[in-house]
Amino acid sequence: MRVLVVEGEKDQSELLIDGLRRHGHDAIAVGSGAEALNIFENVDLVLLDLGLSDIDGIEVCRRIRAAGDTPIISFAEKAAELDRILGLQAGADDCLERPYSFRELIARIDAVMRRFGGQRRPLLSRGGLSLDSESRKVGLYGRAIELTRKEFDLLHYLASRPGVVVSRQRLMIDLWGHPAGAGLSAQASRTIDTHVSSIRSKLRESGWILTVRGVGFRFCQD
Question: Which parts of this chain does the entry mark as a DNA-binding region (predicted)?
Answer without folding.
Answer: 121-221
